Amino acid sequence: MRGLYYRTVQPMARQYGCLTGPSVPLAEIADVRRRNDDRRVTLPEVAPPRYALPIAPDIAPNRARTIHLGIDNRYGRSAYALTLDGGKLGTVPAGQEMDFTASVGTHVLCLLPPGAECGKPGTLRQVFLHDGWTMIVKPAAEMPEAPF
């Protein structure tokens, strides 16, 4: 190890004008402590890399698309009232078909003759409405009372 020091470190130290050998002053413990006390490092402000940035900006969610749905009452003997999610959309007269607009998605639908009450058992249907959705009214000769 000593040979390596004399062959490499000493010639390099002489080349740069450093003192070598026994004449080199030794550092005092107070000098070492003073040097080691203040070890603050100030880092420059660094921007995040481009690959870490989000690919797409934040986009507000879109409204549900508006669709057209049809109620075909051509075979009906009386008018029918259409209620969607608790709100009346309109009345379809007997012998006609009508188009209505709503948002795409799952809705609670009620289609009854005027004067009948929505909400009783068997009157509400949960349906997924999409563009072109149609309901055809086909009344029976006699409509029996619901058993429940």
Word description of this protein:
The structure is a single chain. This protein has 148 residues and is of the alpha+beta class. Helices cover 16% and strands 30% of the residues. The chain contains two helices and seven strands, in the order ααβββββββ. It has helices at 2-15, 29-37, and strands at 66-73, 80-84, 87-92, 96-103, 105-112, 125-129, 133-136. The strands form two sheets. Strands 3-2-5-6 form a four-stranded antiparallel beta sheet, with no helix packed on it. Strands 4-1-7 form a three-stranded mixed beta sheet, with no helix packed on it. Strand 2 and strand 3 form a beta hairpin. The model has no long low-confidence stretch (mean pLDDT 82).
